[in-house]
Write a structure and sequence with these properties.
Blueprint: H1 47-83, H2 97-100, H3 106-121, H4 131-140, H5 149-162, H6 170-187, H7 192-211, H8 214-226, H9 231-252, H10 268-300, H11 309-323, H12 332-339, H13 345-364, H14 372-393, H15 401-417, H16 420-431, H17 437-454, H18 462-465, H19 485-488, E1 496-497, H20 502-510, E2 520-524, E3 530-535, H21 536-540, H22 550-553, E4 560-562, H23 567-577, E5 581-585, E6 593-598, H24 599-614
Helix pairs in contact: 1-5, 1-6, 1-7, 1-9, 3-5, 3-11, 5-6, 6-7, 7-8, 7-9, 8-9, 8-16, 10-13, 10-14, 10-15, 10-17, 11-13, 12-14, 13-14, 14-15, 15-16, 15-17, 16-17
Length: 646
């Protein structure tokens, strides 16, 4: 007579079917623990990481070339529609407004019509600034972006920006670089995790190529796309950014994007003022995000097809551009003027209001464009206005309006996106101002704090959160990777012997003793070595004759784990093998049984983490003779606490 396990069915997903029968028998060559399936030891990097890194370096170079082509395409369209000349030089539409007059209203509207048609018959994914869409593909679709986005996104963005759209080129190139990385990841035979790394590498390389900010680009990828900080993802992304920045140096030079004179380090009062400015700008960033999505909701209620919305947004852009020409186009020169104090208080205030009006309505209409440059313009102007005001009201504070503008520029991005480190490092890399680092850290952190208190989602995540996508907001070390199996498993294991007869075991099972209520039992030989595991259901199955010994029933080795493995490795092993329990063996003697690890043990291990997060107690006492109260003691030291079984 043979066991039905000789022809085991296919694996069952443990997420949908409970494993109440303990360990199923797994295929192997012999019924010994030598053949037991053990989890693979996790490593920091392997040869596959080298392969992904090599691909990422090439991808970084490609993203830099695409960034150059995109800026040339924007320049070409701008020169054609505003100046009637054929040139790829980057130029501002503002100088053309005086001779165009009211015709300037039609140019952005025409661009909106073209973008609407491309979105309708090309891909709806080209709408918006691209980062939320990339995040959604990472979280839900194994980073599989449709290949057509690789060319539709930059073309549509070049049309929108070239016809006067108040956007920066960085959003489209980030989305395009990510789409290129995803496309390569779909051609090559890679895992979903590796494809995510390629997507993030392409996106970060695109940002590096536009702003010459490789470190900020890496941090952006970590905070908004990877949602992790591991060597196997960090190394490819970092080297892709290095390659992209190096290519930018060859194509565009090595000077910072926003050049500023050397600034003096701030004093104490000035530093406190910059932090306060950051907090105020953070508050404004919350309302900026809410207004942008309120406008988007308003467009959703229009009784016309969404294809025409970008044209409506384009009309607003043109009207605003007629009165405020500096709001048209990418506006990188505006940011540099703000940071260098070249604009008056009135000009700063006017530019801030009009840029926000033009950008928010245009973005809400669903056209194709970025958010970084407009936010930097708005935040920089706000910071500069506040800095000028404080310098006039309290000159002894030593507030520099240029540093205030730098803080405002970074703080609005930190508050709107909650990418704190990205904002700080980006502002430093694009200006090369070491004196601004401390004010940036204080101001951006204040903005981050205000945003986290007042707003659940960000300008990057609100759109996909409305679709039911849960975006990670906190990145913590895997707690299960910090706990070893030997500390979590149950060591008092009820075992059966290979020499026992099935009839004897069945009588014992039906006696109802606590020891007999388990769902699985390791079977050991006379030396104490585990030969396999039998489930309660198998032992009670009437197709097996009562004269059989347990040694005859065991035909497959157990699925085991070493007591030195981490709970993360053990949990992954459970999922891979579709089981709910693992045999735990000694790290010194792989034949020696030391315990059983269940899913309940893994869940119970989280108890310490929860206590550390929720339990508050005072341990340092200043009066002698006082004994700690029982309720002040950690839960795992109180009398009566013990192992939680499944």
């Amino acid at each position: 007579m043979t066991s039905p396990a000789d022809n085991p069915p296919g694996h069952v997903d443990v997420r949908t079917v409970g494993s109440t029968d303990a360990l199923p028998l797994s295929p192997a060559l012999g019924a010994t623990l030598d053949a037991a399936k053990m989890p693979r030891r996790s490593t920091l990097v392997d040869r596959r990481v080298l392969r992904i890194t090599a691909v990422s370096v090439v991808l970084g170079i490609g993203a830099a070339l695409i960034a150059k082509i995109l800026t040339m395409l924007i320049g070409l369209i701008t020169n054609l529609v505003f100046y009637g000349r054929v040139s790829a030089a980057f130029s501002s539409p503002a100088d053309a407004v005086p001779h165009l007059g009211w015709w300037v209203v039609l140019i952005p509207a025409l661009g909106g019509v073209i973008v609407g048609f491309m979105a309708r018959w090309g891909s709806r994914a080209i709408r918006g600034h691209g980062i939320p869409e990339a995040m959604e593909q990472v979280l839900l679709n194994e980073s599989k972006i449709p290949p057509r986005i690789t060319f539709l996104k930059p073309i549509s963005s070049a049309i929108a920006i070239g016809t006067g759209g108040p956007f920066g080129a960085e959003g489209p190139i980030i989305a395009t670089g990510g789409a290129l990385g995803s496309f390569i990841g779909q051609i090559l035979k890679v895992t979903g995790s590796e494809r995510k790394v390629l997507l993030a590498a392409g996106a970060a390389a695109g940002m590096s190529a536009i702003f010459s900010a490789p470190i900020a680009s890496v941090v952006l990828a970590v905070e908004l796309l990877l949602f992790e900080l591991r060597p196997r993802s960090l190394i490819p992304v970092a080297l892709a950014c290095v390659a992209a920045t190096g290519m930018r140096y060859v194509l565009m030079g090595t000077t910072p994007v926003f050049q500023m004179p050397v600034l003096a380090s701030p004093g104490g009062w000035a530093l406190a003022t910059y932090v306060a400015i950051g907090a105020v700008v953070g508050l404004i960033s919350v309302w900026t995000t809410r207004i942008v999505y309120a406008i988007e909701d308003w467009f959703e209620e229009l009784p016309i097809h969404w294809m025409w919305w970008p044209a409506i947004g384009g009309v607003v852009v043109g009207v605003v551009g007629y009165f405020a020409p500096l709001t048209l186009g990418v506006g990188y020169s505006n940011i540099e003027d703000i940071l260098n104090g070249r604009l008056t208080l009135a000009a700063l205030s006017f530019l801030c209001v009009m840029k926000f009006l033009s950008w928010s309505i245009s973005l809400g209409s669903g056209t194709s464009g970025g958010t970084l440059a407009p936010l930097f313009t708005i935040g920089g102007a706000l910071g500069a206005v506040a800095g000028i005001g404080m310098a006039a009201l309290a000159p002894h504070f030593g507030v520099d309006p240029r540093i205030a503008a730098l803080v405002g520029m970074a703080a609005i991005f930190a508050g709107a996106s909650r990418a704190l480190l990205t904002a700080v490092v980006f502002a430093f890399e694009t200006t090369a101002q070491p004196a601004g680092l401390l004010p940036l850290l204080g101001g951006c952190t204040a903005a981050y704090l205000i945003s986290a208190l007042m707003m659940r989602n960000t300008i990057m995540t609100e759109k996909i959160a409305r679709r039911g996508v849960r975006v990670p907001a906190e990145y913590a070390a895997d707690y299960l990777d910090q706990v070893i199996v030997g500390d979590a498993c149950a060591r008092e294991v009820v075992t059966l012997k290979t020499t026992q007869v099935l009839a004897e075991v069945r009588r014992w099972l039906t006696d109802g003793t606590p020891e007999s209520q388990h769902q699985g039992f390791p079977v050991v030989d006379e030396r104490g070595h585990v030969q396999g595991v039998l489930t309660r259901r198998t032992l009670l199955d009437q197709q097996w004759h009562y004269t059989l010994t347990l040694g005859e029933l065991v035909t497959r080795p157990p699925i085991a784990v070493n007591e030195g493995h981490s709970l993360r490795e053990a949990a992954d092993h459970m999922v891979a093998e579709s089981v709910g329990r693992l045999v735990v063996v000694s790290k010194d003697d792989p034949h020696k049984l030391v315990g059983i690890l269940t899913r309940g043990d893994i869940l119970a291990a989280h108890g310490r983490r929860l206590r550390e997060a929720r339990h508050s107690a005072r341990y340092l006492r200043f009066r002698d003779g006082l004994k700690p109260r029982p309720e002040d003691a950690p839960a795992n030291t109180r009398k009566g606490s013990g192992h939680v079984a499944e």
